[in-house]
Every structure is written in structure tokens, then in C-alpha cells.
Amino acid sequence: MSIQLYNTLTRKKEVFEPIEPNKVKMYVCGPTVYNYIHIGNARPAIVFDTIRRYLEFRGYEVQYVSNFTDVDDKLIKAARELGEDVPTIAERFIEAYFADIAALGCKKANVHPRVTENIDIIIEFIEKLIEKGYAYEVDGDVYYKTRNFAEYGKLSHQSIDELRAGARIEVGEKKRDPLDFALWKAAKEGEIAWDSPWGKGRPGWHIECSAMARKYLGDTIDIHAGGQDLTFPHHENEIAQSEALTGKTFAKYWLHNGYININNEKMSKSLGNFVLVHDMIKQTDPQVLRFFMLSVHYRHPINYSEELLESTKNGLERLKTSYFNLKHRLASSTNLTDGDEQWLNKINQCHDAFIKEMDDDFNTANAIAVLFELSRQANVYLLEKNTSENVIRAFLHEFEQLLDVLGISLKAELLLDNEIEELIQKRNEARKNRNFALADQIRDELKARNIILEDTPQGTRWKRG
């Protein structure tokens, strides 16, 4: 079986064939670190982390690079408003980003390059574009000559004339053509700046990714990814810069995830429906948010609501309940028979079905449906009078490896019967002492571990959910 992925560049599914056998060079556009990330930023972090995990699961060595934009207009504005310098603000929100994505189950990239640490290579890149006739300087600003790149518009599938119709020259810009874009911006009074051949200034937004992708992954990379909103102009401009410089294909495959709506409306600060991950995960299990993001195909739009999140939570609990019921049977049963080929075959069928769905453009929604089928099969098996240690271990292994591909953790450990009894005794004592907050806390903890309590006149009974 081979992986097929949808390439934004060609607008069709293609068989994935990396440049080097068994190695994948992957660049994912990271955040501008002037604030905490919102759930729109969380979606590409989760989606492309999952794609990376799946490629590794299929045996590829993935070199994964994701940048930080740690200087730009938004950071300069935030620094002015807060009375702090740009590096201080950037550092604070880079640390917050790492904390948030770790909570969401995302692995760190192999490299997280920062713009401010790569100014020299960006300047060198711009100098070469000027030498090749693709850029020009005006009063300390440097612009890219868009019309000099014959294939401009090939990623967004727009002609140069269509693009020009919507282009404007903003107040203060000195570019010769509305389609031209800034590679270097001359510093204004009091702004953070670096020395360059054109005077003090800082890089434009688009040039940073071209320069850093080339530095860490080479002239041509396998996969370039990001949110759908980056297709134009950001990724279009990256192609123009990189291919003008090297004369080579910049990225073989382009992947873009869809938008997020909040209660069927586009997420925006003006509508007051802007959801920060930093705030959300204080109230919601971040694993549930990750599972929710993967419940829809990555290229499709996804609608966020409290009701849908609650439904996702229940679905994830169903999978975890099956897993921990298997763990309980393995730990407590004394009547485990030898292997059963029929059930092992059913587990293998689920394994193959999961791969089939993920091979089809990383269809996590259908892959999750396979996990629910695995859960159903496990629940049926546990109803049997005689169960096999081999089959139970096979079910557990399958749950563990497939959920790990999706970045879902099975951290909660199985509570033994005597541990449950001890917690119930503590709860009873708390209730006796009228410490109802502690009693409720213990009850909720047990519920989270799939232990259901029933208070009766004869005492508290419990069962596994």
C-alpha cells in the first residue's frame, strides 16, 4: 500500500514519493508569537503533528521544521502597547506555545528556527534575488519583482492579471507594481532593526520561511504545510522567492488544512468568538480538543461548539473505557485461555483498515471510525466466558499504537479493586465530616477513571463503566 495525498499545487491526489527513499523533509509554517495561540493555530499544529506521526509509523524518517515569526508589525505594536521590547514578548509567547502544544499532544519539531536568529541568511537571500534581477531597493525598502517570475499564481491557481486586479499600493509603500511585495522593510523611529546593505531594517514576512526552509532542509523539500489562509499570498510568495533564487522546485507537495468556525460563524476578535488554547485547556481536557480536531478530515472546514466538544469527549471516553476494561480483565482474570485466531484476525483487519484510511490523504475521520470498530470488537470479546491473554494483549497493543499515531495518550492507569475501596472509604469519611468538596472531588476522580458509584442504604457500591 502507498500513501496518497492531496497536493494543493496540482489540485489532485498523488502517490507520495519522497525525494530521498524513506526520508521526509517537512516544513510547517509556525505562529507569530505576539499572543497565546487560538484554536485556529491549534488545528495545523495538531493536523501536521499527526501526519508526521503517521509517516514515522509507516517507517519514514521525518525531518520536521516549524518556524517562529518573532519580529513583525504585530510584535512591534504589542511591544509599544505593553512597554516591553520585542524579544521579551516573543520569548514569553514561545514558551507559552510550547506549553500549549505539549498539552495538545504535539511533539516539538526537530528544529524551531526564529527569524531573529537567521537575519544573516535572510539578507544574503535578498542580495542574491537583487543580483538575479528579481528584487529592487527603494529608500531602504526592498521589494520582489512579482512579474519577473513567470509562474506566479500557480499555487493559488490565479493568473497574474486576476491577482493584479485586487492588488493595491498602500500609503507609505514605494513599490513599482501593486503585486510586488516587501522583502526588507526600512526601520521606523524606535523600531527594532538590524544593519543591512540597504540600511537599518527588518525582514518582510514571506522571505523568512524561504530562507529558513532552505537553510534547514535544502533547496527542494518534500512537504510544505500550513493553514488554508496561507496559500495566498504567503506560500505563493515563498515559491516565487525560492524558485527564482535556486531555479529548482521549492516543495514537491503542498498541504493545507481547512478553516475553523465557532458555532457556524467565522472565528474573529470582532465577533467575540476568539478562543485561546491557553484559556480553553484550563476548562477542557486538551486530549478532547485534539480528538475533536481529528474527527473531521484535515482539508475540510470544522465547526467548533460546546455540544460537539461534549460529543467528542463521550466518544473518546468510549475508546478509553474499552481499553481499561481490557487492562482490568488482564490484571484480574485467572481464566485466560490460549490464543484465538478468529479474534486475532479481526484485530489485524482493524489494523489494515486504519492504514487504508490514513493512506488516503491522512483521513483521520475514517481512521477514528476504525478505532470505534476496534472498541466494539473488544467489548464483544470481553463478554465471552473464556478469554485469551494473547487476544487481550493484541487488543491492547492495537489500541496503544493506533491512538499514539493520532497523538492520543492512554496515561490513566488502571485502578485496582483495593485502591477503589480506599478512595471510597476516604469519600465516606469526607461526607461524614461534611467535607462535601473533597467527597465530590473523589467521586469525580473515580468517574474520570470509569468507576461508577451508587450510594445505597447498605453503603456505596461501585462498578466499572
From TrEMBL:
Binding site for Zn(2+): C29, C209, H234, E238
Single biological process term from Gene Ontology: cysteinyl-tRNA aminoacylation
GO molecular function list: ATP binding; cysteine-tRNA ligase activity; zinc ion binding
Motif ('HIGH' region): 31-41
Residues in coiled coil: 413-440
'KMSKS' region, short sequence motif: residues: 266-270
CC cofactor: Zn(2+)
Reaction(s) this enzyme catalyzes, per UniProt: tRNA(Cys) + L-cysteine + ATP = L-cysteinyl-tRNA(Cys) + AMP + diphosphate
Any Pfam family matching the protein: CysS_C
Assigned EC number: 6.1.1.16
Annotated GO CC locations: cytosol
Predominant location: cytoplasm
InterPro entries named in the record: Cys-tRNA-ligase, Cys-tRNA-synt_Ia_DALR, Cys-tRNA/MSH_ligase, CysS_C, Rossmann-like_a/b/a_fold, tRNA-synt_1_cat_dom, tRNAsynth_Ia_anticodon-bd
Domain Cysteinyl-tRNA synthetase class Ia DALR as annotated: residue spans: 353-415
Source taxon at top rank: Bacteria
Keywords attached to this entry: Aminoacyl-tRNA synthetase, ATP-binding, Coiled coil, Cytoplasm, Ligase, Metal-binding, Nucleotide-binding, Protein biosynthesis, Zinc
Subunit (UniProt): Monomer.
Entry's family note: Belongs to the class-I aminoacyl-tRNA synthetase family.
Full protein name: Cysteine--tRNA ligase
Source organism of the structure: Anoxybacteroides tepidamans
